Every structure is written in structure tokens, then in C-alpha cells.
Amino acid sequence: MTDLHVVVGATGGTGSALVRELLRRGHRVRAVSRRGGGPFPAEVETVAADATDTGAMVAACAGARAVHNCVNPPFDRWRELFPAAVRATIAGAAAAGAVLVFADDTWMYGRVDAPMTEATPVAPACDRGVLRAWLADTVLAAHDRGDVRAVIGRAGELYGPGVRSVFAGTLFGAAVARRPAVWPGDPDRPVTPTFVGDFARVLAVLAEQDGADLGRAWHVPHPAPTTGRAFAAEVARQAGAPPRLLPVSSRAARALGLVLPLAREGAQLVYQFEMPFVVDGTAFTARFGGPAPTPYAEGIARTLDRYRARAAAA
Ligand SMILES: NC(=O)c1ccc[n+]([C@@H]2O[C@H](COP(=O)([O-])OP(=O)(O)OC[C@H]3O[C@@H](n4cnc5c(N)ncnc54)[C@H](OP(=O)(O)O)[C@@H]3O)[C@@H](O)[C@H]2O)c1
């Protein structure tokens, strides 16, 4: 069987980390995004295609052993574009006889006080959570019907080189620019930020499976929980910036949303940072083994390297 892995959404934070991980594991990689291109090593085939276009996905996935859906439509167009992107990547993987790996988040679980496991009930607390529940269900229902072999890798809020997320935007950029960092919600609640390299490894491992390991979701393993305050302090320490944190409550975020449409979209997610946000990946480790998840200090150092390089280039 071919070992070609097609990464759709390859130029994003998750997709580009996954391309590197797949190359490291010796796979051939085709990198797909709307604009196409890299930057990727020369051995990576790059294709420009729209994930919401079924015909384009069937063509882009031809010959694949695995298709990775790492697409992230613009935040304010999720409802309009994500369902089509999920359906079309299912069709692409099915036509190729490939395993479909869906890069997922945890918003479908809603308000959870305990660590989130794969057995945590799906009870979304905002419309984006409802959408995420539907997307995951669509992927797993296609697997159950036998339309495609599919599996889901689920991460918490990401950080890492090239990542766009709450942590990326508010902590790292601020520390490098010596600005106070904005923290949505309560900075003293336990959190498990997901290093994007750990997410990429989980997706790559899942793509290499068959049989009973498919047809379900797996959580990314994390180090022991930290807090927003401790994580932000380590970012500031390594960046040589003062550890100044400005917590923003749901109420303040909603008020901002009255004037800024994108803030309105983000405000519905702040609840997650006002309670524990702990993702438990012990099932994955028990089944597939190590290496240990990236320690926060190391993940922060690797992320800051990228921010510094970008600042130097600018
Ligand atoms: N960021 C987080 O904190 C986080 C946490 C957990 C899970 N996730 C999930 O992981 C997945 C990937 O997220 P990410 O943050 O890594 O994404 P990202 O950095 O925002 O990158 C998005 C990628 O999708 C591509 N894309 C967008 N629309 C497309 C379309 N119609 N057709 C083809 N490609 C398209 C983009 O390239 P072009 O614009 O060139 O097409 C880009 O390569 C998403 O499902 C996201 O919800 C993210």
C-alpha cells in the first residue's frame, strides 16, 4: 500500500507541524491548502485546492493512504464552510480508500469541571460547540456506515510555532512586544495547553492504525496541568518581559462583542477559561506509548524562537 499522506490545511499551525512529523516518520506528503505552496522541503508535493469542493478533494486525495483534515476556515465563517469541508474530505478519503484523520478540538464537551476524557458526555455550551459536535458526529457516522475509515485526534487550546489560538495571540505576541498579556477568564484555573508538535504526533500515529483503533476520538497527552498565570509567567520569564497579565471576564468580552463582531464570536468561548480546562490523554499513552508530552518550558522556548525569528525578519 502507498504511504502517501495528504494534509488538507497544510499551511496552518497544525498542518505544518504534521507535515514535518510525517516526513520525520518516513512518509510521502502532499500538502493542500487554498493558496497552495509552502514553505515545505522540496520533497513535499504542494497542491492548491478548496476543501469545501468535493471534486477538488477527490482529486487532491487520489492515491493517499491517509487524509488529514487540518482545515480551519476563517473564524467568522465556520458555520458556512466547516460542514462542507468535512463532507468533502470524507468523500476524498473514501474515494482513495484512505484513512481520514480529523484534527478536532474539545468545544463539544461544554462546561466540564473534571478532566476531559474521551468518555466525557457531549454537551456543548455555545453554538461553536454544537457545530463541533456535529462535525465529529459526521466523521464518526461515516465510519460507522462504512463510507470511510476515520478517526479523530482531539487537542486543547494550542500553542507552538505557527499556531493561531487564544494562547498564541494573547501571550506570546505580547511577551515578545513587552506588552501586558490578556488572559480570557480566570488565570488561576488549571489548564493543559497543547503543544502543536504533540498534536501532530497523535494525528500521525492515528493515521498509521487500522481496525479497532479507528472509529473513535483520541485525546492528545499533556504534561500535568498548569495554570494560565504560571504558563504566562514562564512565557514572560523566557522572553525577558515583565509578567503582567490582564484577565478579561466573559462579561467584558461580551461588552467588547457589542462593537466588534469577531470579539462577539470569541466571547462565547470565554466560559472555558473560567473553569478547569484539562484534557486527559492517558488513553492514547496507554494504547500507543510515549514519548512523553512536551514539557511546557520546552514548548514555550520552541514557540518563542519562532516569534523572535519572525520579529528579527520584520
Ligand atoms: N488553534 C487551536 O488552538 C486549535 C486547538 C484544537 C483544535 N484545533 C483544530 O485543528 C484544526 C486546524 O486548526 P489550526 O489552528 O491548525 O488551523 P490554522 O492555523 O488556522 O490553519 C488553517 C489551515 O486551513 C487552510 N484552509 C482554510 N480554509 C480552507 C479551505 N476552504 N480549503 C483548504 N484549506 C483551507 C488554511 O490555508 P489557506 O487559507 O491557504 O487555505 C490553513 O492551511 C481545526 O479544526 C481547529 O479547530 C485548533
Please describe what this structure looks like.
With 314 residues, the protein is an alpha/beta fold. The chain has a domain at 4-161 and 192-223 and 279-288: Rossmann fold (3-Layer(aba) Sandwich), CATH 3.40.50. Helices cover 42% and strands 16% of the residues. The chain contains eleven helices and 13 strands. The protein has helices spanning 13-24, 54-60, 78-96, 127-145, 166-176, 196-207, 228-239, 250-257, 261-267, 282-288, 296-313, and strands at 4-8, 28-33, 45-48, 66-69, 99-104, 149-154, 158-159, 181-184, 190-191, 194-195, 217-219, 226-227, 245-248. The strands form four sheets. Strands 3-2-1-4-5-6-11 form a seven-stranded parallel sheet, sandwiched between helices. The chain has a two-stranded parallel ribbon with strand order 7-10. Helix 1 packs across helix 6 and helix 8 packs antiparallel against helix 9. The longest helix is centred in the first third of the chain and has 19 residues, at 78-96. It is globular. The termini are far apart. The mean pLDDT is 93. Bound molecules: NADP nicotinamide-adenine-dinucleotide phosphate (NAP). NADP nicotinamide-adenine-dinucleotide phosphate binds at residues 8-15, 33-35, 50-52, 70-73, 81, 85, 103, 105, 155, 157-158, 163-165.
